[in-house]
Amino acid sequence: MTTHLQATTTLNNGVKMPWFGLGVFKVEEGPELVHAVQAAIRNGYRSIDTAAIYGNEEGVGQGIVQGLKETGISREELFVTSKVWNADLGYESTLSAFKLSLKKLGLDYLDLYLIHWPVAGKYKDAWRALEQLYKEGKVKAIGVSNFQIHHLQDLMQDAEIKPMINQVEFHPRLTQKELRDFCQQEGIQVEAWSPLMQGQLLDNPVLQEIAERHEKSIAQVILRWDLQHDVVTIPKSTKEPRIKENADVFTFELTAEDMEKIDALNENHRVGPDPDNFDF
């Protein structure tokens, strides 16, 4: 069982990644973003996830600088992720996009760099670029996001290095069990985006009953469910009380019956685009 906020999973290349982190999707540049990242670090978070398309890498970088200064921890103790956007997929364009992300973040290296979406005909060239960045030590781990089984199989046919992460939409209405099973067989760590389904699950009666029994919030129950499925999770929040509350999921454990009840909520329902039918 994952027992504390800074607990890590070991990726297939030996790199350790925190099970829990802060996501910043749709958080605009500005003081709120900077303070959120700083607050996360202050409260023990050691993983921050952003992306080029979020348009907030500079603010994330500022929050990291302030958080490190306030807490006295080293850069090496943080795990920072960004992603290359669809328009930049390609060998040279991905290398350029990575360089720009690094500059905006104000960092010397990234801990994880992902291909954001599996754009047909483009992700293999982008993957070659990620492999090059990895070999050069500019990124500690490389992976993908929103890849389905057939995308992973296609990529791995030609890849020299197997992806270490697949970050996908994952919540009780979209459990993606076949994909998770495939990734587990291949040694690819699954990571959840939109774990709380953008707030759409916070009045669910099944989750409410489980939450009341454990004296936790529905959000905490969902995040605990993620961890007990061995899925890395990165809930988004800009408010320090919620950042702290989200991370308070290590003092209880869901029962097997709880897990089954939550699994049974699956409807294969997405709040984000379908990776196979995304208008890029």
TrEMBL record:
GO terms for molecular function: oxidoreductase activity. Keywords: Oxidoreductase. The keyword Manganese does not apply. The record marks K83 as: Lowers pKa of active site Tyr. It comes from the Bacteria. The active site is at Y54. InterPro entries: AKR, AKR5G, Aldo/ket_reductase_CS, NAD(P)_OxRdtase_dom_sf, NADP_OxRdtase_dom. Substrate binds at H116. CDD domains: AKR_AKR5G1-3. Pfam families: Aldo_ket_red. Residues 31-267 form the NADP-dependent oxidoreductase domain. PANTHER family: 2,5-DIKETO-D-GLUCONIC ACID REDUCTASE. Belongs to the aldo/keto reductase family. This is Glyoxal reductase. It comes from Brevibacillus reuszeri. The gene is ytbE.
